[in-house]
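Worked example

This section walks through a single chain of length 275. The input is the sequence exactly as stored; nothing has been trimmed or padded.
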Amino acid sequence: MPVIIRHIDQKPTIVSPGCDIIRLLQPEVIGNDQILLDYIKVASDAEYNLVLESGAVGWVQVLSGRGSFKGMTETLTPDLISYLPQGFHGNFVSGEGDAVVLVARVSDAQRFDPDINDMPRVLRHTDWTREPILESEHDARKRIYMATPALTGTNAFKGEMITYPPGTAAPEHHHVGAEHFQYIISGRITALLNGDRQELEVGDVLYNYEHELHTFINESDAEAVFVEFFVPGPCETVWSPGANVCAWLPTGIDSEGRKPAREIAYHIHGQDDGL
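Given that input, the structure is written out below as C-alpha cells.
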C-alpha cells in the first residue's frame, strides 16, 4: 500500500544550532532505502552539514528563503534545483531569514544506474523556471521537468513539477520498474490510491511502490502543485482500461512566458528517453 507522511504530524529534530530536520522518507517508514527525503529548516546565518554516504547521489530543492554552500558562489533559491554528485559534502548556509530545503538521497546509486560514475562530479544546478512548460493533451495539467538525464547526467532519478488547475484530474495508472513520491508544494489535491480517497495538503508526501494504482484530482477552487521524483528514472507506465494515455505537448514558453532554455517535443509519459 502507498505510504502517506502528513506534515502536520511530524516533529522536527534539532541537529545543530539553528538547524531543524524532519526525516520524511526513511527505511523504517517505507521499508527500503530507495529514496531518502529530509525537510530541513536552517535559520538565518545557521548551517546544515550535508554529507552523502559513499556511492550515494541526490538533489536539493529550496522551498523558501535562500542560501549557499560554503566556498561556492551560486546562491540557491526556489528557482533552482541542485544535483548532488557522489561523494558530495558541504555546509549549506542560510542567507537573510530562514531557508527551508528538501534534501533527497539515492543510496548505492549504481544499483539503479550502472553508469553512475559518468555523472559529473561537481554540484550542478538547473533553473527550472527556464525549462519549457508542457501541456497535457487531454486535460488542463501542466508539467515542467526538473531532473532528466540531460540535466543530471544520470538515470538514477527523474523528477518533474505538475500543476493541476481546479477541477483537473489525471488518468489512472501505475508504474513498473521504479518507485516514486509526490511532495505537495501548494494547494490541496485528492489522491485516489487503489480506489481509496486521500486528501493531501502542503508539505504532505505520498510514496508509491511499483504496481500501485493511483491518480489525482483537484477538487478545490485553487491551483494545486506537486513535485514528483522517480528512482530509478526509467520506468514503464501502465494505464488503466479506458484511461487516456497521458501525452505532453510543447507550449514554446517557460514559466515566465519567455522562450525556454531548451525545446522538448511531444511525447508520451514514460517514453521520455533523451530528455
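What to look for: The radius of gyration is 18 Å.
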